[in-house]
Amino acid sequence: MTEEQVFLAALDLDNPDDRTAFLEKACGGDVAFRRQVDELLAAHFKPGEFLNEPLGRQLGSGLATPVHDCLVSQIANQRGGAGAGEKKPEEEHDDLQFLKPSARPDSLGRIGHYEVLQVLGRGGFGIVFRAFDEALQRVVALKALAPTVAATSPARKRFLREARSSARVRHENVVQIHAVEEQPLPYLVMEFIPGETLQQRINRTGPLDAPEIVRFGRQIAEALAAAHATGLIHRDIKPCNVLIEEGHQRIKVNDFGLARAADDASLTQSGMLAGTPMFMAPEQARGEPLDHRADLFSLGSVLYVMATGRPPFRASTTYAVLRRVIEDSPRPIRDLIPETPQWLSDIIAKLQAKKSSDRFQSAREVADVLADCETRLGMNPPPKSFSRISRSRPSASRFGQWKWLVAAVLFLPVLALAATEFIGLTHWLHHQQPIPDQSKNVEGEQTRLERPQDNGLPVDFNNTLAMKFKLIPAGKFKMGSSPEEIEYWLNLVEQEGHKLFLRSESPEHEVEITKPFYLGATEVTVGQFRQFIEANPKYMPDDDRWNDPGFKQTNEHPVVWISWRDASEFCNWLSKKEGRKYRLPTEAEWEYACRAGTNTRYCYGDDEAQLDRHAWFINNSKFGTKPVAGKKSNNWGLFDMHGNAWEWCQDYHDFDYYQNSPARDPMGPEDGMRYVKRGGAWCFGAVDARSAYRSHTGGGCECGFRVLLVAPPDNAPAENAK
């Protein structure tokens, strides 16, 4: 067997022991032959996963020698002739047989609707081309799995899985994947970035100054925040994976090929560490399970290189580097570059803390801190103190000086409310204060229809958790979408899953809500859910990331990473606590409340251009939820019915409205995802935010909920009505 045949056969063996036994038999006693095969496997990281091999190494000087280089640098280097690791001219045609002939004189061939113009580089597992997208008339980078590797089924499946995971990250500071295709062999299409890598910039200029470090660092953190929001960890942040776009000085983070979902981010199945030792987090070097904070350590190491011109951990062997990452602290930056501001050194040191709990806790937090520094550096003259950057917690004595003043200020509204309740002023104000006239809507939006009979119930209700509820009157409405509406969106969306859910909005049918009910004016917030968790210390949420979702959250943001079970348990707890019946709304109740007397695409009308006024969605959210009630309410006073967080409903999902079944205990994780969720979310588009859109897929960083309160006389008297 040839070296390539042995390598390919070994790829199909996922068990390391089976692979070792096979290699010993196939290689016999030929030490040199075995070393070559081992180098191929080591460079591959995980069997069959081309995306796991960093792009710079694929295009570099051979598989056995790591090269800190990336796509853009190779574009420049290739112009000077064949370099180390390039195929000889007589060999170049052999692995391009999958390309179809082209009539264009400067083309090497065609694949799909792409004209392949230039081979940018080759690695052991694939080829990267510069290509022209004829459909969209733009230059792209095209990364194809090598034909010999693509012949193995595991390799194809893993390539496609990793590519599609990477394509989920959409942000201006991330190299965008435009398409992932399977035929004639797996390939992905990326945006083409002219410019240089961060490593090239440092090699060319030496250490960068503070404003440039802060600007570049903030953009890298923004990119990581976007990735973490989708549940992905990059795991290989380093200077050669950071591109600087020519003419814009804009950062583009590249090579999400090593990215893993947060629940599968430690060792690869081959038993090898994935990543670059000099920039690994200690927990990554030890092969422990990772979370998003591993990327923050790597970011700190990249900032260190920008500030000093050298990696923080260096040694003669990989093992020695890993030991230094785990055990040693890097040399203080100001020992190497004395003019480095202390506040910048402090930020980098905090990112490089050995314990993940001692670092910044999210990329969003890092981006905000660096943005604050960037603003201050732009002042004339810049301030000497960067007060937002603290090296340690405030001292107990300093805290003691302020805590009583803070407590008094926070408690004043409570005292005022108690006084007004005692003398009956609040009740009087409720009856004297007119309800705002919401019939005057923004231009182009549908005006409010008359509210049906309220049965004499108060319009507003506040409970003991400071949750605000709005009365939703009984009435009739048309549920679902017309055939014309569904056809309109079917022509716009590409994913079959989306199309399937769109079709489930049919048939449009009349539904009668026979009794009024109260619905939360906002989604349940982090602060409100925290009260539930603190009151039930034995309760274990299905995902503990509700408290740290990977982007900036306060007590006023909608709680996310919430499962259907978590939402139902919150309702059960609140019912027992208050002696009233709380539950999740049915999807009919939810859509009726969302429409608020309208029968249009959104609660305000059909004009998608107006959605920005009512919803936090992918066009304006900047990757993360926003505090509740930050946008315009619907006609019945409900906020964020479009966007911000998906909202669980009581019903068990079926693609036929009439087959929906009432809530029941989930049988397991997959079964638990089959409940209806409504309203779209911060990371979804306009199609998902519509009043009629219904889904059940997923869960995670975009899933929250809203609570329904059963109205009297079927519930306890609403004595807290305002």
Give a quick rundown of the structure:
This protein is an alpha+beta fold.
List keywords for this structure.
single chain, 722 residues, alpha+beta, Transferase(Phosphotransferase), domain 1, 4 domains, 5-stranded antiparallel sheet, 22 strands, 13% strand, globular, disordered C terminus
How would you sum up this structure, described in words?
This protein is of the alpha+beta class and 722 residues long. The protein has four domains: 1-44, no CATH class; 195-377, Transferase(Phosphotransferase) domain 1 (Transferase(Phosphotransferase), domain 1); 401-430; 453-710, paralog of FGE (formylglycine-generating enzyme) (Alpha-Beta Complex), CATH 3.90.1580. The chain is built from 25 helices and 22 strands. Helix 1 crosses helix 3 (31-44) and helix 12 runs antiparallel to helix 15. The radius of gyration is 29 Å and the shape is globular. The chain starts with a helix and ends in a 12-residue tail after the last strand. The relative contact order is 0.07. The model is unreliable at 43-92, 258-274, 387-453, 664-673 and 717-722 (pLDDT under 50).
